[in-house]
Amino acid sequence: MMRSSLKNRWIGVSLVLLALAPAALAQAPGEAAADFTLVDKNGAIIHLSDFLGTPVIVNSWATWCPFCIEEIPLFQDAHNGVNSDGEQVVFLLVNLDENFDVATAYIDTQVSTTLRTVYDATAEIKAENDGVEFDTTQNVLTRLYRVRGMPTTFFINGDGIIESVKIGPLSQGELATHLAGLGVAWQP
Description:
The protein contains six helices and seven strands, in the order αβββαβαβααββα. The protein is of the alpha/beta class. Mean pLDDT is 83; it is low at 12-18 and 20-25.
């Protein structure tokens, strides 16, 4: 009976690791980060390439992901700490394929943040920006970046190269270590 329980637990852990393995292989450290075109909550068009020369933290989030929501204040603290003398690091919170209105309303009413949040463009925004080729949030995260687990965070240096990837929630110490890998000092 004890062996059966242990075996079942091992099988469960193995399945979780196998499910996360593809995410660890996508957009791996040392590779150029795939560019994307998304929109912020005010309708401004955002390209990852807009930030060349500055390290960028790209974090996937969704309203239904409690770990994602718990990380936002941590990112806000780091943003405030490292950007007190001008923008040294860009933090982009990329919503995972939720309705634009639902996601923006959630950020506006449930989360206190000044971080850039980017989304799939609504039909109205696409019509206003005729000729701009938008990737959907789902394409950016699931096709280009192959995010399979939430949250997933990509640490991209100023040259547009991925320095590190963290699958799962970040602690203060882990965030400080990843930022240090970008040449940015932050003391939590």
